[in-house]
Amino acid sequence: MSAVAEVDVVVVGSGFSGIGMAVALKAAGCSFTILEKGDEIGGTWRENRYPGVACDVPSHLYSFSFDLNPYWSHTYSSGDVIQDYLLSVVEKHGLREHVRFDSWMQAAAYDDASGTWQVTSMGSDGSVSVVTARALVLGVGALHMPHIPLIDGLHTFGGELIHTASWPQETSMFGRRVGIIGTGASAVQCIPPLAEDAEHLTVFQRSAPWIMPQNNDEYSDATIDRFRRHPALMRVHREALRRKNDLRAVAFDSHPKLLEIASREASRHLKNQVKDPDLRRKLTPDYTMGCKRVVLSDTYYPALVREDVSVVTEPIVAVMPDGVVTEEGTVHELDALVLATGFDPKGSYAHLQIAGRDGRSFAEEWQSGVESYLGVTMAGFPNLFMLLGPNTGLGHTSVLLMVEAQIAHVMRLLDERDRRGASSVEVRPELVPAFTREMRERSERSVWRQGGCTSWYLDDDGENRTLWPGGVGEYEQRLTRPDAIDFLFT
């Protein structure tokens, strides 16, 4: 017997993607349920609570276009401020009643006869619940599944071992010998406060990051008041930030030489803040700017020049119960070891036990190199949509712009499905290889492929399956008016 839908849509995840989707569904009068594995709203900014956590996208751009906030105090906001903003959106739109907390999606199976998804979730107490929906939207995010490095003996470390993505709130590093592995965006934010607290901080650096000045200016009370009284001025400010940021796309995507001007500014920033020539050589990147994420900070270099901070560039060969051993045989004795080693961009998806048409395995496709259409739909998975799927991340501006474009795209497809009286909608299979090939060809000339580094942007085969190789405007345009012939309405 065919399944009967209990709700129109099940949304997995209550971070920015899931909440944005929920706002659109509620405005359209759709019934929906949000499954959230945690005990509170949030994704990236609930999970990442390490010291110094912040966003490197301007606050007025890292927010929903339909819920502008005049009260941002600084150009860039800390993680807790962003989390508070997301919670305010939830309360404003009355979404909390739609959320099932402590509900980790265990499995989802598609029923071809009815065009519905049967979604099974489990609570921390082992309780199981099932909900049937006419569509399944995955807003599971990419920046919260920690990447754990493969280092001999890591599990034998006798002190406190912490990944920045799962920082215990009660932990203090005051007066301790602390080591930190990694010098990416999380490390650059985490190192200054750690240096303030630790008896000694040892930074294990594999490759030096490109650091640009942050210039985190404070909005004056008068400016905040103007934005509050005249929202149009706030929209103009947001649009100016958007245009400025999106101009960077051409440098990352196809003309890396344009990054030379910015790299000269970054080099001046390093020279101005680090006077020791030996340390400055350690901190000078040996790859093209933009190959890894460019980081903004005014406090990172000053932290590294402290007498109680050491920068170690010799490779780590092993971890022992009392510390870290580097290639030349030195044992760096530590009381605590922090892994600032980033995230697994496909980890959030690769564990999902989703069975599409004819039992097609979602997890197996992700493990073998997932192929999608515009990062939102996959062949063989009707009525299933991804938010921030493959090739829709950004390295130059706010990813929420992509999220909003995808949400609008999903709503159009659902509306068209219902207008036609169909039970399902999915992308035509022949379009997916062409899109994958386009992403590969466009990425080939990008700085991520040509910049002389390895990064989490690229998969094990060196292919970019993470970032969108273009500007946001182009992506929005391609999603705004999807050609109905590209989709199958059954």
TrEMBL record:
Keywords: FAD, Flavoprotein, Oxidoreductase. InterPro entries: FAD-bind_Monooxygenase_sf, FAD/NAD-bd_sf, Flavin_mOase-like. Pfam families: FMO-like. SUPFAM superfamilies: FAD/NAD(P)-binding domain. Belongs to the FAD-binding monooxygenase family. This is NAD(P)/FAD-dependent oxidoreductase. The lineage of its organism: Bacteria, Bacillati, Actinomycetota, Actinomycetes, Micrococcales.
